[in-house]
Design brief:
heterodimer, A: about 210 residues, mainly alpha, about 0% strand, elongated, B: mainly alpha, Rna Polymerase Sigma Factor, Chain: A, Arc Repressor Mutant, subunit A, 9 helices
Chain lengths: ~210, ~180
């Protein structure tokens, strides 16, 4: 076949396209992922019992601010990465900003506490539960986000996969925060931050397999 | 900003709005750039003009199918280059060349040269079409090959207009996958 014939065939009755489709699909996936994560936490783990107390509200808001900040920055970049050449417009610094802030706050809170408390502040009661739960809750959000990115045309599959994992890990942390009663900042920085990074690495590894088009 | 970038971007914007003539002009101009690009890249790994033409057509089909992913706030040249390079790497990997064969290049490379001497590619659109489900075959055949309107195609294929559009889009994606599958070693 000649290329001219192909072009002629493709140029018959060209339909207008929706330029906002990519952004909308990613946003829908984000919403669905959040619903899935919250559903799993409500049904499987249950919301923390002391949710109505002021102390719980303060620490829950802190965890949510970290998780939602991560999701917010990462999903803006994911929408770019879903498009060809989107990798040109990525600033890893901004995506890492929530991690930097939480680590700084964690360091300050460790510095102000006596060193005999450090072990308990870092390990909390439920570090193992956090380590296992966040990646598991992230599975469905990850699948939906990958589906959305596959609707577009990412050209850097490692980065697109990594950001899909980052978004999914952040969404999962939003859900898990409602259950988790470990309220120290070093705990959040290490176990929330660490599991989200784990999800990001998994996404980077899976991206090239899952996102080919 | 170069003239080529400016003109191509105007064509792309019109094409996104459903202007058939602009779409055709865009694909024709880009296909010449793509041909020059692929010939020069493939020459370095000792491959011929027919393979370059296969790639030109894969990229043209990809640009057609993915034109909704172009964001008008960004320049067009890097977008086209990213698609072209993605298809090149995919092709080299499929054909078991090493990734080291892919030369480092800049986005400007894509519009630097022009080559209008098209060889025949190794695909036959009508023959490939026969491998698709009937509804996709009918819709693509009517609208893309025979130039009927979507309404006429809906009548001929006995389906609704919206399913004609969906069948064409899915069918072309399936076709792109068939073309990619065909060049496997």
């Amino acid at each position: 076949m000649k290329t001219d014939e192909l072009i002629a065939a493709l140029s018959n009755n060209v339909e207008p396209v929706d330029r906002r489709l990519v952004g909308r699909t990613v946003a829908i996936a984000l919403g669905l992922g959040l619903v899935a994560a919250l559903g799993l936490v409500f049904a499987g783990l249950g919301v923390r019992a002391d949710l109505a107390t002021p102390r719980a509200v303060i620490f829950l808001s802190l965890k949510l601010a970290f998780a939602l900040g991560t999701v917010g920055a990462a999903s803006v970049y994911l929408t770019r990465l879903a498009r060809p050449a989107g990798e040109r417009k990525i600033s890893l610094g901004l995506a890492a900003l929530p991690f930097g802030v939480i680590m700084l706050l964690a360091a300050i809170s460790l510095g102000r506490a006596p060193s005999s408390h450090w072990d308990r502040m870092v390990m909390g009661d439920q570090w193992l539960e956090c380590l296992i739960s966040v990646p598991i809750i992230a599975i469905v959000p990850f699948a939906v986000v990958i589906w959305a990115v596959r609707k577009a045309a990412p050209t850097n599959l490692v980065q697109a996969g990594a950001f899909a994992g980052l978004v999914a890990g952040g969404v999962s942390a939003v859900g898990y925060a409602l259950h988790c009663t470990d309220d120290s900042l070093p705990f959040v920085a290490l176990w929330y931050g660490g599991t989200i990074v784990l999800c990001t690495l998994a996404g980077a590894l899976l991206g090239p397999r899952l996102l080919r088009w | 900003m170069t003239t080529a970038e400016h003109e191509l971007k105007q064509l792309m914007l019109a094409s996104q709005d459903g202007d058939s003539a602009a779409h055709r002009a865009l694909l024709e101009r880009l296909s010449r750039h793509l041909r020059a690009y692929y010939k020069s890249k493939l020459a370095r790994s000792g491959r011929g003009a027919a393979e370059a033409e296969d790639l030109v057509q894969e990229a043209v089909l990809a640009i057609h199918l993915q034109r909704h992913t172009y964001d008008p706030a960004q320049p067009l040249t890097p977008w086209v280059h990213a698609v072209a390079r993605y298809k090149l790497i995919d092709f080299l990997r499929r054909t078991r060349a090493s990734r080291a064969d892919v030369p480092i290049d800049a986005a400007d490379d894509i519009t630097a040269h022009d080559d209008h001497i098209g060889a025949e590619s190794s695909f036959d659109l009508r023959r490939l079409l026969k491998q698709l489900p009937d509804n996709m075959q009918c819709a693509i055949g009517a609208v893309r090959l025979d130039g009927l309107s979507v309404a006429e195609a809906a009548q001929r294929c006995d389906m609704s207009e919206s399913s004609v559009k969906v069948s064409i889009h899915r069918g072309l994606k399936a076709l792109a996958a068939l073309i990619a599958g065909r060049t496997k070693p």
